Amino acid sequence: MAVDNRSILEDTVITTKVEQIANWGREYSLWPMIFGTACCAIEFMSVAASRHDISRFGAEVVRFSPRQADLMIVAGTVTYKQAPILKQIYDQMPQPKWVIAMGACASSGGFYDNYTTMQGIDEIIPVDAYVAGCPPRPEALMDSLMSIQDEVLKCRLGEARNEAYCGKLDHV
Amino acid sequence: MSKHFEPFLEKFDTTIEASEKLNKNLTVHIPSSSIKEVIDSLKEEFRFNLLLDITAIDYETYSVKKKSQFYLVYILRHEEFFHTITLKCAVTDPEDGVETISEIFRAADWLERETYDQYGIHFQGHHNLRRLLNHHQFVGHPLRKSYPITKGQLCTKSDDLLEEMNKRLDSKGLLKCDHGGAYSEQEDSHMFLNLGPSHPASHGTIRTLVALEGEVIVAAVPEIGYLHRGFEKSCENHTYNQIIPYTDRLNYCSALSNNIAFSKAVESMIGITITERAMAIRVMLMELSRIIDHIVCLAANLVDMGALTNYFYLFNPREEVYDFLSKLTGARLTNSYMRIGGMTHDLYKGWNKDLKEILKSIEKGVDDSLSLVAHNRIFHDRSQHISSVSAQEALNFGFTGPNLRASGVAYDMRTTNPYYNYDQLDFDVVVGSTGDVYDRMMVRFEEIRQSIRIIKQITKHMPEGSINVDTHSVILPNKPNVYTTIEGAMNQFMLTIDGVKVPLGEKYDSLEAPNGELGFYIVSDGSGTPYKVKVKAPSLVAMAAYADMIEGSMIADAIVNLGSLNIIAGEMDR
Description:
CATH architecture of chain A: 3-Layer(aba) Sandwich
Structural class of chain B: alpha+beta
Number of strands of chain B: 15
Strand order of the largest sheet of chain A: 1-2-3-4
Largest interface: A-B, 43 and 49 residues
Helix content of chain A: 25-40%
Strand content of chain B: 5-15%
CATH class of chain A: Alpha Beta
Distance between the termini of chain B: 37 Å
Shape of chain B: globular
CATH topology of the largest domain in chain B: Cytochrome-c3 Hydrogenase, chain B
Structural class of chain A: alpha/beta
Number of strands of chain A: 4
Shape of chain A: globular
Distance between the termini of chain A: 57 Å
Oligomer: heterodimer
Largest sheet of chain A: 4 strands, parallel
Radius of gyration of chain B: 24 Å
CATH architecture of the largest domain in chain B: Orthogonal Bundle
CATH class of the largest domain in chain B: Mainly Alpha
């Protein structure tokens, strides 16, 4: 459609739900907050660089300020020392928000089954997508980003997500 | 006996309980009461002025009975960098511990804190003996043999670091004390700000609490350990070859270099020499790792200065290196390509052609990037004379690698203590002059070029032959042998279940990794699992110097300084 043809624009009406148009906009403008701690963060740098180019999915505006972000990508090992910080940053993000656990460590602790490593970030915050790999290839992260985009379409306006979640650092 | 050791042994003849010399390494046992005196004299009189590492060993479950449960280990190197002295002393009571040496070597400050944290050995007179790696609510000392490996402890709240900040301000005369001697609130003129641990410019997970006067940092308190993921404890529960994937994740920007460093340390303990071809492949991959490590450091730091284009110029060739590594090892980042005694498999057909193309792109990336910054006024203003470190200070801090060379000290283990075939290769050791951010970055740019030179020489004369040593007790047998002969099957089974057996003893072995001297102090009880592994991590000492370097400078300078030191949290926190 030639959108520069003003007569078409003036006469055209699209009917849709407010929720759908909002979600459609959200889907292609996710602003990720990178909680990068370890090796996976280096792979995230590759995802952002020109070859893989996360901006093709509208998610290149990497915000390190949680208050401006709606997608948290936890890239790397989260230790017990790091856990309260992860929780605080997650809490600072406005609703609706989504979380990707990138890599084996964030998903389950990986092969660090020891005294210092959190056995998966889902013990403290809710997770929407887990990405396998140590670290995952960039394609795997992009795949999970697309799965989050599908989730975004199902989002109900004004409804907070994962309200019922209660992790180890809630109520302590 | 070398002229470096003889006078020392003579002077402390009555103090030294036992000594053992191997090539350029001397190990001496001394009583814990004379540690400070001996180290002071080693530094001032005998010029052993680089402290490499301090660690402890818990001999509780060791196969040989020792007279004390805990021993401390100090490793020092001579100013000409050829000779190394390892001091060992028995600690009778960890509560009493030993005297601190943090006044002699500034590098000892954090190394002693780490030893206290992990083993509970006290250092009398240490100005700030707090935990370093584990969180402040942690109870116990995890590297003691009695501590169960999986016993995690939840941390509910981060340390506010105010007590240490107040101490720091007090030491600079910037704090008002009230009448009771207790610290009052900080002065009104200071603003406290946390840089990190989750901040794009904190390069991973480093936290620095700073007290600001306007934009100038008057006091800084760094806190590390956010990525302490128990590498050393995990080593004590895995066979030597199983540890190789863990070493990948130390300095994850150049995983192969850690693989090689660890394999080399274990091989030197067993006493095997790898084949010519394996050496050449290792040196080639080591230099390729150095290139991609420096690229991450430079690209990220230039982004922090606002030069985003460089990131793309430098990261594109890095992607090509990843393609090469995936083709060769099966993984982009965490390669696990080395094995004790050699490597998993040989180079693939056509590697030479691929590598040539990659080197061309890297050269182009470096040239393009330098064409943007080399004569760029903004880059010069942001980096020159920022956070300068003199050669003397750098040695005192315990710096190695590019950070030390930037200060003008020509110490490169590839030339001072050549291993593999480095002595047959033609390359320059790159040194800076003032040790500022500019030098640290430019040394890395030039080292990329030197590494390319080395790789080109190796690809021209790649030796033929086997990649693995021909020793059944180290290398797995060929698959046809395993499937058709009982000897082969048993060999495979024993090596897989028990692991490669390393003779009883302990040894420090190191090489020149991209970030500096990467060493492993390994204690073996004769089995296939190490009794203890300690990593001498170049990033740790660099970070320990950070507070002193940034005090008095602006916040923006502190950010570029952190980038130029190339702190890799995985290696620093282990």
